[in-house]
Amino acid sequence: MAIAVGLAAPRDSPGAFGGADAIRAEIDRATLAWHAPVVDARTRVEQGQGETWVLLASPCGTGSESAGNAGVGAAVALAAAAQAAGDAPDAQVEPFVGIDGVGLLVHGPARPGESSQAHARRLADSAARALAADEIAPARATQARTMLIARAAETDARALGGLALAVAPGHPSWLDPDGTLFGLASVSDDAVAVRAAAVRAGPLRLGVVANVDAAQADAAVRAVDRWVARRPGEERTCPAVAAPASPRAGTYAVDVPPGALSEVLIGAPLPPADANVRAAATWLAAALDGSDGLLARALGGNGPTATPLARSWSAVVLGAPQAPALVVRLVGSDPAIDAAVAQVRALLDRLRHGALRDEDRTRASAALARAKLAGSLDPRARVIDLWRGEAATPVPSIDDLRAFATATLRDEAFVIVAARPPRPPPDKSPAR
User: Fold this and answer.
1) 84 and 197 share a domain?
2) Most buried by CB count within 10 Å: which residue of 81, 106, 188, 309?
């Protein structure tokens, strides 16, 4: 270990500035700062797990992004992941991009003969060096932006981007953290570097799922913490988040290439930071979703010989916590998509007037239980839940769900985005 201390001479002093007392004071301040933990660590031990999992991310997420740079945080995560993967080829490195966090997920088994603590330090070093210490190489930033722009040009991403612009005006990455085509096209390599520097200077949270013992998890925490540059007395806080603007209800069109399937998103905006409302929306989405859900019944998807109006459908809650919305997605051929949308809007209107039944709530409860079980069996989902520290969500009653539907599923409040191919021009040949 080596310590370098630089003391600048005052501008108004003709001679050199220094002295043993000043040097000792600076070393003492640096030592105190070095021993003060910086990273917010959350650890868990799962003995027998095949791999150790490390998730390091900024809890600021996409809060500071606007329409002009929507997706810059995702570019930082992708670029840092590529950089870390190049330096650690024997570990699995994944970008972590969410509304509530931007960072890296690193996991992998131990090398032959590698101790458990050395294993944890190796994975933690890979995540921390790429995200919290090294600058993003311009080539990595360019590669990340190119990948995200190509993804944002796809039909489903363009539809989601249009919905995000209407649900969260001025801040589309509050609903779509991968960013929009406009935002990503406006971002430069320098902007990615600036955002990465802000991540390094801001708060960092660490989630570790160790597969041996608590000492292994502690080794990962210490390894990450030593990569983080710090200054005595500094406070790491997220930038202030702008107040959300009111959603812009209405119907919006998105052009897609000829011959592509049509896609329609129906969004019902929700009030932010309301756990009870978000829980009710999640349960209603579970009642709508699935092969035996309310959407399948409305679209004629039940029965082995039925021909549904749409090829696929889903319901999910997106955008929490800043710009949450209950979103129904329909994909199908252009001639049938209008009928599918009409059926779904009629279904939502019936739910608004109290059509939700006890058996619908029971089916939603079973679907959520299956999803929770699947998540508990996935170590990736477990380390993300550990990082987020999500508390138990309220369980709404049937009356709660009906009250939520009455208050939320208002047709005049919907944001509808229709991504459709151009229609052929009318035949202008003269009639015989």
Assistant:
1) yes
2) 106
Identify which of 127, 108, 117 has the alpha carbon closest to the alpha carbon of residue 215: 117
- Give the residue from 183, 191, 185 showing the smallest Cα distance to 162: 183
Q: Are 285 and 326 in contact (CB under 8 A)?
A: yes
- Nearest one of 38, 59, 22 to 232, comparing CA atoms: 38
More confident position, 180 or 9:
180
415-420 vs 262-269, strand pairing mode: antiparallel
Average pLDDT, stretch 93-118?
97
Is residue 411 located within the same domain as residue 292?
Answer: yes
Q: Which residue has the higher pLDDT, 8 or 326?
A: 326
Sheet holding 101-108, edge to edge: 40-45, 205-210, 52-58, 101-108, 92-98
The CATH number covering residue 392 comes to 3.30.830.10
Q: What is the mean pLDDT of the chain?
A: 91
Number of other residues whose CB lies within 10 A of the CB of residue 60:
23
Q: Kindly give the residue spans of alpha helices, DSSP state H, lying in 138-274.
A: 138-152, 155-167, 181-186, 189-201, 214-227
Binned at pLDDT 50, 70 and 90, residue 132 comes out as: very high
Residue 364 has pLDDT above 90, yes or no: yes
User: At 271, is the secondary structure helix, strand, or coil?
Assistant: coil
Identity of the amino acid at 347: L
How many Å apart are CA 60 and CA 302, to the nearest integer?
43
Q: Which residue, 196, 227, 258, sits at the end of a domain?
A: 227
Share of the chain above pLDDT 90, in %: 77
> What integer is the mean pLDDT of 328-356?
95
Query: Residue 206: which domain range?
Result: 38-227
Instruction: Give the chain's domain count.
Output: 2
User: Do residues 164 and 61 both lie within one domain?
Assistant: yes
pLDDT digits (tens, 9 = 90+) for 34-67: 777 899 999 999 998 899 999 999 999 999 999 9
* DSSP-assigned letter for residue 132: I
The arithmetic mean of pLDDT across residues 222-243, rounded, is: 88
Q: Concatenated DSSP letters for 290-342?
A: STTSHHHHHTT--STT---SSSEEEEEEESTTTS-EEEEEEEE-HHHHHHHHH
CB environment 405-429: b (16+ within 10 A), e (fewer): beebbeeeebbbbbbbeeeeeeeee
- Other C-beta atoms closer than 10 Å to the C-beta of 371 total 14
